[in-house]
Amino acid sequence: MADRDGVIWLDGEMVPWRDAKTHVLTHTLHYGLGCFEGVRAYNTANGPAIFRLQDHTDRLFRSAHILNLTMPFSKDELNDAQCAAVRENNLDEAYLRPMVFLGSEGMGLRADNLKVHVMVAAWSWPSYMSPEAKERGIKVRTSSYTRHHVNITMCKAKANGNYINSMLALNEAISGGAEEALLLDNEGYVAEGSGENIFMVRDGVLHTPELTSCLEGITRATIIDFAKDLGLEVKERRITRDEIYVAEEAFFTGTAAEVLPIRELDGRAIGAGKRGPVTEKLQTMYFDAVQGKLPEHGDWLTLVK
Ligand code: PMP
Question: Which is the closest atom of ligand 1 to the Cα of 56?
Answer without folding.
Answer: 15
